[in-house]
Amino acid sequence: MADPSPTPGIHHVTCVAGDPQANIDFWVETLGLRLVKRSINQDDPGTYHFFYADSEGTPGTSMTFFPWEDLSAGKVGSGQVSRTAFRVPPGSLDFWEDRFEEYGVEYDDRLERFGETVLPFSDPDGLPVELVETEIPDDDPTDPWTEFVPEEHAIRGFHSVTLWVADPIPTQELLETMGLEETGTEQTDADAGEERTRFAATGHVGKYVDVVPTIEGGRQGHGTVHHVAFQTPTDEDQDAMRAAVRKEGLNPTSQIDRHWFRSVYFREHAGILFELATNGPGYDSDEPLDALGERLVLPGEFEAQRDQIEANLTPIEIPTAER
Fold it and tell me: Which residue numbers delimit the VOC domain (predicted)?
């Protein structure tokens, strides 16, 4: 099989939350992302799966959550995605600091990283998130949603993820196999004795992955990342990338139909769960674009269990500007 086409970048990031209503209120109203899909965890249908993205659910913009209410708080550590960063247009961070003050969001001082200004903050579950001011190119594929946040300051998809690993070399070599290129190193924000190494994919959105060595212990729970998915736009791209990953000594799954994309999963060398996701058929394959997220979508065989599934889910209300 031919070498895989380089991944354009991050497809989505999936995280663990607690209270589903608090999660929706924060990601929709406070951060201004659109709920493009309201569904269930297809491996645990008693749990919601929320997808937040730009106005059209463009690949590279969707942050998704499993609100497992019974789990305890997690702790970010080695073998995890430690931070997820989103792009915002230049000059936006004053707006976002004012908004965070208004909504009571915990945030830290701005910092400079690889020549860009970064605003770190946390969601209601303590999930570490960042906004990064960066130029948005004229041909950018994202389409900002403006129900709560004006277009000139709106989030424009992913900027990067940061991976915490004990031994960075195998993870870095895997990223290069996936088509990302090393672009530079910097001392980390927390410890001047450690280096952050940046890798860049080929696309505009979600193009960066930073690798930071650490032996800090962690555990999964509320406020941690469950997995990060990378774009393999077509089935052929995914097949080739899956074969390349196997050659690296890893054990990718067979393709799994996730209804809005098709997925392959594997744990990279440090134990972080990676996904390869196709770009289609998309979130509008089963709902009109103007009605995304308005109803609970139960893919495939789950529709026949709707009454039982809905009875076990916590009722939620979607924020709207009118409310």
Answer: 9-134, 157-279
